[in-house]
Design goal:
6-stranded mixed β-sheet; about 35% helix; 7 helices
Length: about 230
């Protein structure tokens, strides 16, 4: 069953008196519990496509359906509510709240949803990502790899239907990157969360169930990865 569908999605922006097309006619589906990597050169439209799929923007043409809801038919507030309830995000820049501890950062999505925060569940997730002894540390007291682990725990605390990851290992060394990747896919499998990620790393892309290659705003190829994790 598809949890995410893009149908003939295009996106253009005003550029002076002309229009700049950054995506043209992209179509694909992402099944519940599956993983897909988007690769391609800089400027190929990868991050734009990720943002449209997450409802951070709406397409100029075509449509995106997330968890059965057509995103462009929703108001901005309705799209924001859907993101909070049904999606998780992992960014290259971590985007942790500097004034909150690791535990408080993980709990934050539940508070934004109006749910009763579960410190025990948040602590368990931090333990799963190797931060059992760092729950009371603030982001500035954590290494880059540790901050990314907090971001992963935060993204999974409300068991999202889809996890969006934008260059999740871009600022990390090779050893820390593999640790992060292993954790991300492990939690992906156990929670049944679909994973859509943008990456420049071909080795990371091959670990996903499917790799989509973008070029000049178009979807060039889709490859099923036989050796995905």
């Amino acid at each position: 069953m598809a949890i995410l569908e893009a149908e003939h999605v295009s996106k253009d922006y005003a550029s002076g008196e002309s229009r700049l097309t950054v995506l043209k006619g992209v179509s694909f589906q992402l099944e519940a519990g599956s993983s897909c990597a988007i690769i391609g050169p800089s400027g190929s439209g990868k991050t734009t496509l990720l943002g449209l799929c997450a409802g951070l923007d709406v397409p100029s043409e075509g449509k995106v359906i997330l968890d059965g809801k057509e995103l462009q038919a929703l108001t901005e507030n309705e799209r924001a509510a859907l993101r909070r309830e049904r999606t998780g995000f992992i960014f290259q820049s971590f985007q942790l709240m500097p004034s909150l501890t690791a535990l408080e950062n993980v709990i934050l999505p539940l508070e934004l949803l109006g749910q009763k925060p579960s410190a025990e569940e948040a602590a368990n997730l931090l333990g799963r990502v190797g931060l059992k002894d760092r729950v009371d540390h603030y982001p500035l007291q954590l290494s880059g790899g540790e901050q990314q682990r907090v971001a992963i725990a935060r993204a999974f605390i409300h068991r999202p239907a889809v996890l969006f990851a934008d260059e999740p290992t871009g600022n990390l060394d090779a050893e820390t990157s593999q640790t992060i990747v292993d954790m991300m896919f492990s939690l992906n499998r156990e929670a049944g969360t679909a994973l859509l990620m943008v990456t420049h790393d071909p080795d990371l892309a091959r670990q996903a169930n499917r790799t989509m290659t973008m070029a000049a705003g178009r979807l060039e190829s889709v490859v099923e990865n036989a050796l995905s994790v």
